[in-house]
Amino acid sequence: MKAINFSRFHGGFLERRNTLSIIIFLFIGFFGCSEPDEVGLNLINNKASFSTTDTISLKAYTTLSDSVITSFSNQHILGVMNDPVFGKVKSEIFTEFRLPGNDFSLGSDPQLDSVVLYLGYTGKYYGQLQTIQTLRVYELSESIPDNDTLHSNLFVPHYDNHIGQKLLRPAPQDSVLVDSVVVAPHFSIRLDDVFGQKIIDANGTDAFRDIPSFLDYFKGLYISVDDEINGFGSIFNVNMYSFYTRLRLYYRDGDETATQHDFYISEFAKRFSYFKDFGFEGANQFLLDQLGAQNPAEYGDSLLFLQSMGKLRSKITLPYLDELKKLPGLIINKASIIMPVATDFSDELFPEARQLILHRLNEQGRMEFLSDMFLGEAYFGGVYSEADQHYKFNITRYLQGLLDGRISDYGMVLRVAGGAEGAERVVINGPGRSNDAMWLEIVYTVFE
Fold it and tell me: How many domains would you assign to the chain?
């Protein structure tokens, strides 16, 4: 039972007449994963007419997530990583390139010099940059689907032979020297001349007439990463709208001096990230046991594993909520879920995810935003506190809605924020942890 310091509430809502003000610290104490998690509803009276209860228990467990939409962002992630807790994971990129306009021309007699793919970093990454990775570029044999949303489990066919390859040590925060000028971080991959000649051969044909004709001629590129690396590896962010992200054609028009043309990725170009998890190869055994358990809700509430890239999330329920409904005239003044981090699973290479998001589930099992979220990040929470080593969410409106019957209780889902744009992850203490467990803190008033 957590001690209450009642003096800190003097002068606040506790001075109202004809009300009974109650502070509830709802702890989830669980000594060993196999023990039942029944924390009772014990009201303990005191001289200040306050009562403390640890009645309502949280239940939580790790579950596989769904694929995520990766086609809306201006940045995609690339790379492969051997995470010692979550196992191997990687991200690759599919993208189109666009003509600058209709009736495009490279001149009367273009002669190829070379063709190079440039990709601009955002500066963001996760993992070990020192690990060298092998990147290969393929031309697509089929078009990227013309859908409003493209998910991370989509794979588009490509031609068998790669048209470019590079051994890359990612340097997302290192400037590059180009012609004695320091420019923003980026890297390049020289592509085959056969592919470059294909672009040259489109000059003066219907392929350069308009964008649909060009996309039928050149459907796009697949930027892949080899599975095998020697080290932990990393996943880094590519700015698809960067000035340095482009397909550059170097050529001469007849006998004239060398020139160049850049094919960019516009906001209208279809593009997305493709994620792969290798069946959680090399993952922590406790995580593997959770995922393989017949009843993960009972087995996996000691540690909760959260991973971005549409991999892992946690479901949280309030199985004994009806106990609070027995108190008539109940008003929730504040309700917070505190989620301590299991810091043994994080380090400098794999730090805690910066932010988590908490959703509620509807009748169809789809995620919806909690109304508390619309009051802003400062109110709702979810940002990792390094000082306290926990995440905290304010769910006051949500809990009051459940008690009033305005919202049906189908549980909540906890996931890493920005899961389409990063490889962050975290392990948090679940409600079944024997110490420093996830817990629910409620301050409420009962009107007599």
Answer: 2
